[in-house]
Amino acid sequence: MDSQRTKDDEEAIRTALSSLRTATGIPVTMFATVLPDNRLQISAWVGLRTPALQNLVIDHGCGVGGRVVTTRRPVGVSDYTRANVISHEYDNVIQDEGLFSLVAVPVIVHREIRGVLYVGVHSPVRLGDKVIEEVTMTARTLEQELAINCAVRRSEGGRAGAKSGRIMNGAEWEQIRSTHSKLRMLANRVEDESLRLELEELCDQMVTPVRVKQTTKLSARELDVLACVALGHTNVEAAEEMGIGAETVKSYLRSVMRKLGAHTRYEAVNAARRIGALP
Predict the structure, then answer these.
(1) 263 in a domain, yes or no?
(2) Containing domain of residue 187, as a range?
(3) Burial class (CB in 10 A: 0-12, 13-18, 19+), 81
(4) Average confidence (pLDDT) over 36-65
(5) Number of domains observed in the structure of the chain
(6) Where's the HTH luxR-type domain (predicted)?
(7) Quick one: 206 exposed, middle or buried, by C-beta within 10 A (0-12, 13-18, 19+)?
(8) What is the spatial distance between Cα 268 and Cα 257, in angstroms, rounded to a whole number?
(9) 88 and 20 in one domain?
């Protein structure tokens, strides 16, 4: 189980580093894993010119990464060796690599810091708020992937320990999705608030036994629209099901796609399933 966890998580981290480099155009991306003693170790990297930072172990509270772990907040420095917000135990290795500016963001899963995501440049360029936002967004996506990996492993462990456990087939999943959508539509027609909340809670329980915490907040109506789209409904059919106009459905879909970074309605459905918002 530990070897599978390592494999799954390492793949998610490598994907995050590559996508971050592509999205920002910044040459160096790194990930540092939190060790059992709360130190950090740079365990994955893209674009380093020398081995100076490869597998480097960083003491608790030291450097940019140490400050990120201590504060649980992003940290950016425009001139590493002169920055007054960090300690300078690792100036030599930073100079050996030739890095100038760094931005680092914590990766937090289930309230526990799992690591630190870095980007850096070798030239005297200031990494502004837009870069920090991009690194933060990538960190949030990585958090979701790591949390999903954890949830899947727990689910598989539970099935392995159950005498009659088995994996549901596609038809059974479609039945659950259809029931989930119908429950949401039914909840919308209930005037009694307490009963409506109970129905919505049942919908949430159908999503997954171990729900991944959503970092992207979708409204109830946005989830209703996605539930209809997940069943293959057109905008007109979704509008009829929900009792609203087709243009309103389009508006909700545009909002959902913007929040989830999706380009099509079906990408939005898949993204919602990955974060545990839909079954």
Answers:
(1) yes
(2) 168-274
(3) middle
(4) 95
(5) 2
(6) 211-276
(7) middle
(8) 6
(9) yes
Tell me whether residue 209 is in a domain.
yes
**What are 88's two structure tokens?**
């300078």
Q: Using pLDDT thresholds of 50, 70 and 90, give the confidence band for residue 211.
A: very low
Q: Per-residue pLDDT tens for 259-272?
A: 888 888 877 887 88
Whether residues 185 and 250 share a domain: the answer is yes
| Per-residue three-class SS string for 57-77 | EECCCCHHHHHHHHHCCCEEE
Residue with tokens 């919602």: 272
The whole-number pLDDT of residue 199 equals 81
Indicate which CATH number applies to the domain containing 244: 1.10.10.10
DSSP assignment of 143-209: HHHHHHHHHHHHHHHHHHHSTT-----HHHHHHHHHHHHHHHHHHHT---HHHHHHHHHHHHHHH-S
The reply to whether 71 and 136 lie within a common domain is yes
From residue 259, give the alpha-carbon distance in Å to each of 73, 124, 177, 191, 209.
22, 33, 22, 29, 24
252 neighbors 225 (Cβ within 8 angstroms): yes
Handedness of CA 230, 233, 234, 236 (dihedral sign): negative
State the number of CA atoms in the 13 A half-sphere of 73 facing the CB: 4
pLDDT at residue 153 greater than cutoff 90: no
- Which amino acid appears at position 84 of this protein? N
Residue 122: other Cβ atoms inside 10 A: 15
Are 126 and 199 in a shared domain? Answer: no
Per-residue tokens: 147: 């949390």
Residue 238: enclosing H or E segment and its boundaries? helix 235-242
How does pLDDT run across 97-152, given as a tens digit for each residue? Answer: 999 999 999 998 878 999 999 999 999 888 888 888 889 888 888 887 787 777 76
User: Could you tell me if 44 and 101 lie in one domain?
Assistant: yes
